[in-house]
Specification:
alpha/beta; 8-stranded parallel barrel; 11 helices; binds phosphoenolpyruvate
């Protein structure tokens, strides 16, 4: 399974970012042994897709609405994102779950709509620090997987412990391996053999300096990278650590 290194720019980037962050990925991506994906804010999806057209770097969005179209002022549909050049979409990121009250049921509905529009979904799960300290991390992540993934899911799961996002703190390698093993078992229990082929990304303070160790842990099929994806050289340094 080729690793996937996905960049989540979050609410960062003006038009210059298409040339400044995305375009420098084009040439190096040709020789990487992993898949590369960048997820700029919705306002930049079209510009980044143009900057990366014909390259090996895919483009995704960070969210979509659960409804396919209609009276939802200010929202953006999966079909609109597909139309602007996105082929992937991140769903259920902890910042959306926290800032917008997104529930597992809503994330599942968004995933169904995204898949119907031709997008591949990256569904995010992860526990808070309080939940981990209470030894509830597998219960929390198990419930998120059960509630957020549609039947027949063929996308990607991103395990992102909330307390590791943007903090510079990461779980121990043993804890990451244990959680990815747990997620794999849940996927196989629900989807059978197909669950063995789904990529499970780790996300949370992945940097050039820690990527090699994280990306070689069992069942870690890549990384979802926030802050470090905003510098092309750091993002590429992480990608060079991935297994092919
Ligand atoms: C993220 O928000 O998905 C993320 C992993 O952020 P960071 O890499 O900055 O911790």
């Amino acid at each position: 399974m080729r690793a996937l290194i996905a960049g989540n720019w979050k609410m960062n980037g003006l038009r210059a970012a298409a040339a400044g962050i995305a375009a420098p990925l084009r040439a190096p991506a040709e020789t990487l042994g992993c898949d590369l994906l960048v997820c700029p804010p919705a306002t930049l999806v079209a510009a980044v897709a143009r900057a990366l057209a014909g390259s090996r770097v895919a483009v995704g969005a960070q969210d979509c609405d659960a409804a396919p179209c209609g009276a939802h002022t200010g929202d953006i549909s999966a079909a609109m994102l597909r139309d602007t050049g996105a082929v992937w979409v991140i769903l259920g990121h902890s910042e959306r779950r926290a800032d917008h009250g997104e529930t597992d049921a809503l994330v599942r509905a968004k995933a169904e709509t995204a898949i119907a529009a031709g997008l591949t979904a990256i569904v995010c799960v992860g526990e808070t620090e309080a939940e981990r300290l209470a030894c509830r991390e597998t219960a929390v992540v198990g419930a998120q997987l059960a509630g957020s993934l549609p039947d027949g899911f063929a996308g990607v799961i991103a395990y992102e412990p909330i307390w590791a996002i943007g903090t510079g703190r990461i779980p121990t390698e043993a804890d990451i391996a244990a959680m990815h093993g747990f997620i794999r078992a849940e996927l196989v229990a629900r989807f059978g053999e197909a669950g063995r082929g789904l990529r499970i990304l780790y996300g949370g303070s992945v940097k050039p300096g820690n990527a090699a160790a994280l990306l070689h842990l069992p069942d870690v099929g890549g990384a979802l990278v926030g802050g470090a994806s905003l510098r092309a050289e750091d993002f590429l340094a992480i990608a060079r650590c991935a297994r092919g």
